Amino acid sequence: MQRIAIAIGLIGLVALGPLRASANPVIDTTRPTAAQIERIQAELVGHKIYSELKPADHAQVVNALSRIQEKLGSDGVLSGLHPAAQADVVNDQELVNTLLAKARADSRLVCRREVPTGSNRPQTICMTVAERAAARERSMDVMRKTGISRPEIIP
């Protein structure tokens, strides 16, 4: 009985994961969008929150925001648009939310206490998630190129 309760609880947590991620969208068309778009554009210029946003993704976000502004106009009401225009706005909204949520997650700073080789004194090393992934990928490339990761074949 206890196992069933635990399994149901885990399934519930898995089901709530996507809801929690979408519960806080970057841009929400149910609220006035002009202020949201201005805030996002200011954050894009500052390069603090979305520092890991690639240039191609940055251009996509800027273009999508301008299309949303153009479609919604001055009143910013989604329900007053033609259904095809509503679909375009919602698609652009999803694009912006997806790209900016990923960039925000990659820009998160993670600090760890590490002991460098040859020392007994731990140091705090802070890197973004994207910097850690890039460093891991570079070290794997070096190991592949030098052949360190391949076991030697002894005849």
Summarize the structure.
The chain contains five helices and two strands, in the order H-H-H-H-E-E-H. It is mostly helical.
Spatial strand arrangement across the major sheet: 1-2
- The helix count comes to 5
Distance between the termini: 57 Å
The number of E-state strands comes to 2
Query: Mean of the pLDDT scores?
Result: 76
User: For the CA atoms, what is the radius of gyration?
Assistant: 23 Å
Structural class: mainly alpha
User: How would a textbook summarize the main sheet?
Assistant: 2 strands, antiparallel
**Binned strand content:** 5-15%
Poorly predicted parts: 13-23
Shape: elongated
SSE arrangement, N to C: HHHHEEH
Classify the helix fraction into a percent range: 55-70%
Structure description:
- With 155 residues, this protein is mainly alpha-helical.
- It has five helices and two strands, in the order ααααββα.
- Strands 1-2 form a two-stranded antiparallel sheet.
- A hairpin with an 8-residue loop joins β1 and β2.
